[in-house]
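$ fold --in a.seq
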Amino acid sequence: MTGQLRADAKRNRDQILAAARELLVNQGVGVPMEEIARHAGVGVGTLYRRFPDRVALLRALSVHTVEHMTELARTALRTEPDAWSALSRFVRESVALRLGALRSIVDPQLRSALHQSDEIRSARRDLLHIVEQMIITAQADGSMRTDVGVVDVAMLVSLHLKRPFDVPGTMPEELDARLTQLMLDGLRPASATVLPGKPTTLADVDWHADHEL
């Protein structure tokens, strides 16, 4: 019985987070908690027992999203034939999550508070270590330019996700695919132009506790 209760609790939590992500992206951060509960198929009391307020829900959603991305990265690294293919797949799958839309609806002060959460920072660090492994391996086999680091790539993806406006008459998926391919092509050695400075690594940003990635 205890195992069943745990399974039910996990299922409820996953349903709430999935519903919250969908509604927040489509309707904005002000969507009522009651609407999230209804969309998740759970009672309002169940939602508030798991997440007593909106900040707690957003914090859990942030961790859940980063953990999901980490699993995407691990799967790509395990199943793709080489590191460049794994990195390319991971970047495309990350873009498909529409993280830019989710990020844009969160108030800057709240976003800063979320990024300072130890749980979120730990999850993000785990993700970046896996991506760094992809990059180092791809650079070693000659499939990726050698003058970039994991933070350079993470910031590049982040900038891509912050699309400033939609282009009329263009499907968002098509535009994302075009921009993603342009970004990936820029990481290939054949397109390399000498960059100023040196590659930015995790060690470089560890000095800044509130750095957003």
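$ fold --in b.seq
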Amino acid sequence: MADDRSGSTMARSTLAFLRTKIVSGEWPINSRIPKEPELMELIGVGKSTVREAVRSLANLGMLETIRGVGTFVRSTSPISLVLTEYMLDYGLEEVLVFRRALEIEAAQLAALNRSEAHLAALRASLDSDLRADPDVPDEIERGTTPGQFHHLVFDAAESPLLGALYSGVMAAVRRAMNERQIVFATGQDLRRRDHAALLGAIEAQDVTRAAHAMALHVERDLVPDDGDAESLTLSLRARLLEEHAAEQADLLS
């Protein structure tokens, strides 16, 4: 009986340790957590205890394990799992509309509430994206750690509830992407230019410009797959590239 209590205590303390790392932000959303052997050494517990804790947090929607890649932080609160399950009753178009509304609100709040620390994190994320290996397929890059820049915008918004809602929406979006129901409609270069324009608006604390920059980006970032993803993506990319220069000029004028 004593051993059972000891095992139960270790499981609870391991779960609490991992959750604290996530909730405190020490392990940011979309970051990869330490590998299993590292966690075993760090916490001082066995493999089964670590796996049980990771599985529990994955069931709450706070972690996601991608086979062959690693385990990633997806939310700081279990509320995202509730929202994800709730959104299964709605069509993809409605999910994407809700995502758009959250993104625009976050951009406006970020322009109002951002600190120098927030700006530094956004700049670092943008710089990291610019240095990304061009030979790595965009789908792989964004499939392993999707939306890091966007989550940092939500951090800058200083609204934990808004961030939790966004995590729930993005979990539903990732599920649809895995099933090829949603596809990326922008390439790396266009995405980076969109992010740079958004960062400029947030730095300038220009609420209207931030909202417009985010709306422009979200409208062309993810789209439902109509069954011919390749032709959809190529045609949309071509049209958006033609429109991009004029739209960015309007935003900056």
